[in-house]
Write a structure and sequence with these properties.
Layout (H helix, E strand, L loop, with lengths): L14 H13 L4 E4 L13 H5 L4 E6 L11 E4 L2 H13 L6 H13 L1 H26 L3 E2 L8 E5 L6 H9 L6 E2 L12 E5 H4 L2 H11 L1
Length: 215
């Protein structure tokens, strides 16, 4: 599960939701895999599920492909000793390797503070872009799934029950690529929803094109 800044909805667990999920998992003897690839973009992150329940009940996964570069395939796992041993064995048997050069780059950035500075700078940029995009979408009649609090994505419902897939097709004629809700699930209600990447959307030409499509 993704507890912080979920893709595509941008949702983060409230404390009540986090504890509710942990109680449900405990009741049914389920081990949770916590995917936290987007968590570093949260300006004020709550405790992770693994911190609340412990690594005997939650395995924590994160990495740097979403915060540094998609090509930087360096990640890490925090889990119990037995699970770590099993995963290490599985990786060796599958021939899975990680570039040592990439690992050294990430290690250097974490050690000398470069990663922290990069994270802070990009996070502040995302917050500014997200606030502008959220305000602009609401001005066009979109309904936001939740107030924007950070991260890459805003999930919104189109005005007047417009069909998001149709709008996305019309947008392609204007060289504008949109992400309709049906790309992310099969619920019929998703036909009226759309995911917006705040960095890509925070451009005058994108805003003008979408406004024209909705006119």
């Amino acid at each position: 599960t993704t507890g912080l800044l979920h893709n595509p909805t941008g949702h983060s667990f409230s404390p009540a939701q986090a504890y509710g999920l942990l109680e449900l998992a405990k009741r049914h003897d389920c081990h949770i895999i916590e995917d936290d690839l987007y968590g570093d973009w949260h300006p004020d992150p709550p405790p992770r599920l693994a911190a609340l329940a412990g690594i005997e009940h939650v395995t924590y996964l994160s990495g740097f492909s979403k915060t540094l570069s998609a090509n930087l395939r360096v990640s890490y796992v925090v889990t119990s000793a037995q699970a770590a041993a099993n995963l290490t064995h599985l990786k060796l048997m599958c021939g899975g390797i990680t570039s040592e050069m990439f690992e050294q780059v990430v290690c250097s950035m974490l050690t000398d503070g470069t990663y922290h500075k990069h994270r802070k700078r990009v996070m502040q940029g995302l917050l500014a872009s997200g606030a502008r995009v959220a305000s602009w979408l609401q001005g066009l009649g979109f309904t936001l799934n939740a107030p924007y609090t950070g991260g890459l994505y805003i999930w919104a419902t189109l005005p007047a029950a417009r069909d998001a897939a149709t709008l996305a097709q019309e947008a392609l004629a204007r060289d504008l690529v949109l992400a309709p809700g049906i790309l992310f699930g099969f619920d019929p209600a998703l036909r009226h929803c759309m995911r917006f990447n705040v960095a890509h959307t925070d451009k005058p030409e994108v805003m003008a094109a979408l406004a024209a499509l909705l006119d």
